[in-house]
Amino acid sequence: MTDSTSAPSTSEHPPRTRPDATESPQNRLSPSTPSGAAELAHLKMSLHRSLRQYPDFPAPGIRFEDILPLFSDHRLHSSLIRALELQVTDSYGQKQTPDVVVGLEARGFLFGPSLALALGAGFVPVRKQGKLPGATETVAFEKEYGQDFFQIQSDAIKPDQRVIVVDDIIATGGSAAAAGSLVKNLGGTLIGYLFILELDFLKGRDKLDAPVHTLLSSQEKAASKT
Question: Can 220 be counted among the known catalytic residues?
Fold first, then answer.
């Protein structure tokens, strides 16, 4: 018989030094350790350097913060998901991570499912009215051009499940607040909001009734510190 520990590497028997893809998030480094904090700080700097800005887009006087470069390179994309995972475990502790990650249409769908996988949580989408099948819960919110509506499937969140709402950027906060209302209407426990970037001059977090966590500051805010 051959010792299983010395068996050659195959697709069914990968090298023992390779990380286990099914490794529990609770067994990974967190920012509560010095190495985890250093990893998060390094990732934030790398991600911040990769953001792009476009002045006078989509209208004169507006500077558009472009996060799409974070998804165009697989290394940056992996770094983003890892940084968000560390941000969550830093904010809530490894034993209090969410049961469900709720992502807002549409850019919350870019990273919400991957973050949910990393955290060992489920993913639930919040969509514009009329895009989800079956029974839904609906809430209205105000946008700069008028009223809009968000919906979530009525059975998507179970009572008392711990939920975090994610989106790419927090601006005025109206859409995120609407998603939070949907979570609470279904009986979920809203533990917070997580964004990649915050346009802090718009004071969107003032509209939110749970802790707000932002991975990166806006480049304008960062530049003022240098």
Answer: no
